[in-house]
């Protein structure tokens, strides 16, 4: 039996530019890993536009000395802010070292962020190894067409 993706009818494509808009996020026990990873990849990251949740962003800009747009701190709404930017197609890629060992007070926000990243089909790295693979992809520095929800068709079907 051929299984058609449920959302196939309401998808379209969009192009991720060669210069990506990358969001960087890490939970407290993972911040050291993200900072070390980002420092190792500073040259590659400097080719892109970077943003981050509040604390992560402050630490990263100190360490990397690169321009980084810092949003609100995660527990105060930063995950939601990043998620909103993804839904608005203002963020192309998410590197989120979330902590698999610690419960977080803003767990619903974290789930929502990861969900919206899946909805908008952007590349997501949730650990260092995947982040290495992502950054070494040839697609990092070239335009890349990806499938996204067709919002106009979605609305048309609802009103
Ligand atoms: O809590 C976070 C992600 O869920 C990260 O927030 P901070 O970068 O402000 O610590």
From TrEMBL:
UniProt xrefs under Pfam families: MGS
Active site positions: 79 (proton donor/acceptor)
Listed SUPFAM superfamilies: Methylglyoxal synthase-like
The keyword Lyase belongs to this UniProt entry's keyword annotation: yes
Keyword terms: Lyase
Gene Ontology MF term list: methylglyoxal synthase activity
Protein known as: Methylglyoxal synthase
The encoding gene: mgsA
């Amino acid at each position: 039996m051929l299984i058609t993706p449920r959302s196939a009818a309401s998808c379209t494509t969009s192009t991720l530019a060669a210069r990506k808009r990358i969001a960087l996020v890490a939970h407290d026990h993972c911040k050291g890993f993200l900072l070390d990873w980002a420092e190792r990849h500073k040259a590659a990251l400097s080719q892109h536009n970077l943003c981050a949740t509040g604390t992560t962003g402050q630490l990263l800009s100190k360490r990397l000395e690169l321009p980084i747009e810092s949003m609100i701190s995660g527990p105060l709404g930063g995950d939601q802010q990043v998620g909103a930017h993804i839904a608005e197609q203002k963020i192309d890629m998410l590197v989120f070292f979330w902590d698999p060992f610690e419960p977080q007070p803003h767990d619903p926000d974290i789930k929502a962020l990861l969900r919206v990243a899946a909805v908008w089909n952007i590349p997501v790295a949730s650990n260092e190894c995947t982040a290495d693979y992502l950054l070494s992809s040839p697609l990092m520095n070239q335009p890349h067409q990806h499938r996204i929800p067709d919002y106009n068709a979605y609305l048309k079907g609802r009103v």
